[in-house]
Specification:
alpha/beta, D-Maltodextrin-Binding Protein, domain 2, 6-stranded mixed β-sheet, 5-stranded mixed β-sheet, 13 helices, 47% helix, globular, binds (2S)-2-hydroxybutanedioic acid
Amino acid sequence: MKKSLAMLTAVAVALVFGQAAASAQSPIILKFSHVVANDTPKGKGALKFKELAEKYTNGKVKVEVYPNSQLFKDKEEIEALQLGSVQMLAPSTAKFAPLGAKEFEALDLPWLFKDEATYDKAMKGVIGKWLFKKLETKGITGLAYWDNGFHMVSANRPLLMPADFQGLKMRISGSKIADRYFRDVGAIPQIMAFSEVYQALQTGVVDGCENTPSNYFTQKFHEVQKDITVSYHAHLQYAVIVNSKFWNGLPADIRAELEKAMAEATDYTNSIAQKENEDALAAIKASGKTTLHYLTPEQKLAWQKAMAPTYTWARSRVGGEILDLVAKELDIKMN
Ligand code: LMR
């Protein structure tokens, strides 16, 4: 009696998470939803994972990739993962507060990583691991960090000194740290789903935004922003996450193959991110549709000074533990 109950429960769980027994006839379906274009580091990473996962599991797993917010917009995709209606996501870590993991926003501090190598080391090391531990109690498992380089910022006027931001409505993706540093320079930040940004810029619902070159180019933001400052003032990274019940419920051998596919897809994504963004920036420049600006050392210093209060404020938002850890690992002074 007990045994059949246990079996029934197992079948029910398998059905709920769309993984009715791994057999040649009915592959396990893994839905991977994301909000960007295929032709970006994350878009290419997702397709690479699909290719490798299907190859290593001999087709026992079928990965369905849904790019461009086709299935869900920003906040909805997080809810969908928690409910199990999608199995894998790679949201920007700026969007993790709804998961109950505000600590990830520490990564959004302005001018935090001095270069890509520093970022990479931090995420592969204790910072990345510490943050993933925060997800364990939320029913979410963190598998990897994917890079998308540094943010630029834009409007229909050159943004060279902090005063240039005064009164501008700036779209942000979700992080309260970004909200704070834009307020530090007198802007009015507004959270908005990624899929709505182009139209909001075009119609003047917002005046400006921040993002990486690959996102600007593939979303055509540069066509509706007269001036882009290549400021690289903050970093954009993703955490590839899965529903823990789904993941832990997979047959161990299948999970091992998927882990291998993810490790290789991660190396691939992180190896192309910088070049993809350089190419996108070159394409934006070549389009002639916007003007690119670069900060002088004095201008950069003025931004850093203006945004410094965010560091002090961050303690009340993300907590001292992660900030102290970041300070130690990056060998920087927090405040
Ligand atoms: C954004 O909303 O601006 C980004 O998180 C989009 C993305 O996933 O790169």
